[in-house]
Amino acid sequence: MTTKTNRYRIFTWHVHGSYLFYLSQGPFELYIPVKQMAEEGYCGRGNTFPFGSNVHEIPAAEVRNLEFDVVLFQSARNYLKDQYEILSSEQRKLPRIFLEHNTPHESAVNTLHWVDDPEILLVHVTHFNKLMWNNNQTPVTVIPHGVLDFNIPYKGMLPKGLVVINHLEDRGRTLGWDVYREVRQVIPLDLAGMGNGRSAIGEILHPRLPLFRSNYRFLFHPVRHTSLALAVCEAMMHGVPVVGLATTELVTVIENGKNGFIHTDIEYLKEKMGCLLKDPALAKKIGAAGRETARELFALEPFLSRWAKVFEKAIAKNGAPQRAFSYS
């Protein structure tokens, strides 16, 4: 049986490591399933993120015997398949929340979300995502990203840009593989992330990324259609200038020429990247403005507070008493 605690006991899966790490900074006990044979959502804590003691690995076969306050789905597989394999019938009656990390895939405007249930809360990470998904009859809210400020000063001494995307080639035009290839013909770029082949620099583990990223002149985000990437939020929080496509939620975050550069004209973006390479002072100025924006939009405490309120509301709706929380 899970330990009795004044902190909400959230059962979820390890789907998006960075997001789970930031959520784990809150006053919650997070329980994640693990299997000996690694498969999607069942890798446990893993070795990438410095999770604290409030993130608990649970053997998948034992999950149905434990007590939780909330079930948090994070993928179609979690909702359509996993819950029926590892949760008991009583656990499936608990307050349920679906955290949708992504933009719709099939059609930008007509894709029906997997959840169609007035008893489940659907949480989107951007207002763009909420707008574009067909959310059916499911109640919807938006919780914008929150990231840690590691207080690592921006240096920008490397005259090149950094791209941080996993499996970029495999994910194709949606993530901007073609844009990246075009730009790198004229602008020096390093590609970091898992599954990017020998031409990339490989995965930079999350704890090392802030210091590693601080040395680059700018971050380039070639993505056409996705959620607001945590890599972008993190770069801005740490004063690294961001250059990206003027699509999806990024247009509400970056004001072109003031706290970053965004456009749909790739030639324009190449020109601005060239300016940043030639003018370190400009890069520092743009990065500093981006940092101020990030501190306003992506501070961790409001993010955690919003999640606490969502958990409280979901549990209260199910008849359980609310609890007091501290962020100390």
UniProtKB/TrEMBL annotation:
**Keyword Transferase included in the entry's annotation:** yes
GO terms, molecular function: transferase activity
Keywords annotated in UniProt? Transferase
> Would the keyword Protease turn up in this protein's UniProt record?
no
Family annotation (Pfam families): Glyco_trans_1_4
List the residue ranges forming a coiled coil, or say none.
none
The protein here is known as Transferase
The major lineage groups are: Bacteria, Pseudomonadati, Bacteroidota, Chitinophagia, Chitinophagales
